[in-house]
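Follow-up to my post from last week.
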Amino acid sequence: MAVQTVATPSRPAPWRDPKIRAIAVQVVFVAVLAAFIAFLAHNTIVNLRRQNIATGFGFLDREAAFGIGESLIPYSPADTYARAFLVGLVNTLYVSAIGIVLATLLGTVMGLARLSSNWLVAKLAAIYVETFRNIPLALQLLFWWALLRGAAPSPREAWELLPGVFVSNRGITFPMPFAEAAYFWMAIAFAAGLVIAFAVRRWAKRRQERTGQQFPTGWAGVGLALGLPTIVFIGYGLPLRLDVPALRGFNFAGGTAMSPEFGALLIGLVVYTGTFIAEIVRAGILAVSWGQSEAAMALGLRPGQRMRLVVLPQALRVIVPPMTSEYLSLTKNSSLAVIIGYPDLVSIANTTLNQTGQAVEGITMIMAVYLAISLLISLFMNLYNRAVALVER
Amino acid sequence: MADIDIAEEIPLPAQQRPPVVTSGVIGWLRANLFNSVFNTILTILAVYLLVLTVPPLIRWMFIDAIWSAPNGQACRAAMGQEGGACWAFIGQMWRFIFFGRFPYDAQWRPLFVVVIIIGVILASCDRRLWGRRLLLLWLAGLVAAGILMSGGVFGLRYVPTELWSGLPLTLILAVVAMLFAFPFAILLALGRRSKLPAVRIVSVAYIELVRGVPLITVLFMASVMLPLFLPEGVTVDKLLRAQVAFILFAAAYLAEVIRGGLQAIPKGQIEAADALGLGYWRRTRLIVLPQALAMVIPPLVNNFIGAFKNTSLVLIIGLFDLLNTANTALTDSNWQGFASETYVFVAAIYFCFCFFMSRYSQRLERTFNRGHRR
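User reply:
Got it. Predicted complex:
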């Protein structure tokens, strides 16, 4: 008889049933949120109507009528706002892409230098990291800009940092080889070299698994990737003519120039983000326990092999996820260009919404673009992360 | 006698070189700077770099620098060809850089605000004070700071927020952003781990949206779009709009930090709380949050450093924080072209705050990890 009293717990009353309560809470939550958004939307519509601002993206087809300092694609003030936005987007992507590459290089070198057994090098790297990490990026940008724009001399008295590299208040001018037909074929040869090197690596790996014989894939790869373009280069008769900047009148002619704005933004982003990347690299390498290195040494691996085969694969696992967020923050920080007047996406959108009053649309567009960039970089880095992630069995 | 004989029979080792010195200055140099060919090359390069950069920098900052001059022309004339730093400019402008457009005769008030905020920050560094009392101290400090800044009571002259500027503004923006973002961030972090899909989706969307866009766009939104969102006739002060933007922005980042702490709590703790019959809110308040928040204090300090540095972006929407007052000082017609001096000075101020806080967070991390390390 006692068994019957334990069996079949009675259903709780509806207001005590967790499932029903969960649904009720969510319904209330969504309703309150929707009411809040509707309230904001209503106010916005009323306010826009009062200020006689048309909503919608129709303004994009109108003439922009403002000039843009530098652009990678053809643009004139007679073009549309849509075109201006595109110019800004290209500029943002351009400075971010170069910045990411350079910041990774600088950060990796500095992170390794901080771990160096050389006391002086380690201390110098530490000073670099601690200094530039603790100063706001906006201030650093203004400083570099003031240096390039204000403190740098006129082209006549330009500082010559390296032979052919001039810094003046017109920006940074450096030599660049003239475009030759050979370069196109060299690029093709480089790509072909990479593909062949990859194939060789697969073949060597399979042979090593089968027979245990090793093959110097690293040297073969370098030889293929660099050797093939060199052969093409020699085959074309060494066509190298440098376009060296030379002073002509009040400015430099020839070479490739970087405007003070672009230069300041790039230097600022690279130097600032480099400090964070240095710390990530350092932490990643420190995260690989010393026992791993000892084991590698006990197996008789040479220092290079130890780094390449044992330490780096494990360190990369720690390094890649925070590196992704640094790349993202570099891209987002490139929007500080508006402070020093480099025409990036935000700067152009700002001009646009000041001219047209289309604040909602302008800001929506910026947000959409940055979200898309963020998602793309995350996606790409997640794929890479999956490639280096621990394969668990 | 016998002993001596034996000693004489043992042949002396062949002419060996003395062992390599491993102590003293030379030993240290050998171990740390010249222990391999590669390191020797690196040392020589580093020394060359130092010789190239440090003496000119010291000359600029100290030897050729001008410490007092009535105006920019006099400064430039005094420094001659070489060109040192014109610290006379900072001597003339430091009060403007620190307090900006705040009424000159009332600038003791922002000075006190700075002292109060730094004092409360220092007090927060003492772990013995952590707890409810510290929160009360923060609130009292902020109320006092608010009264001192705006005035209008106790016989203090009313100062509108447009005149708040310089270092106090920077500190207020950073501190208030963190304090007010904190509760919001806790809700977002809990929401992101909620079992209710609607709550979870909204939290994730908010966090990812805000983290995916630059702070500038959030600031623009606050300064341009917020007035559109409000009913007709309601206007919000520019400073408050920027403050709201910082709070909304900081909340998304804080939420992710707190989520890290929530995820690190062993499931057993939650099950134990359930077994005790605690409901969701009591479980969260009494068991989960105290442990989760204690775990994330070091990253929270790092977040605060980020918020502090981020306040410098308000110059884009025309508020006069420390960076913007410095920038404005540069436009003085008597003193043209001393940008480097000004930026170095302001950078030193930012550096002092951030460096102190990052050192503190590193120390905390070491203390916190002590239990986990063998």
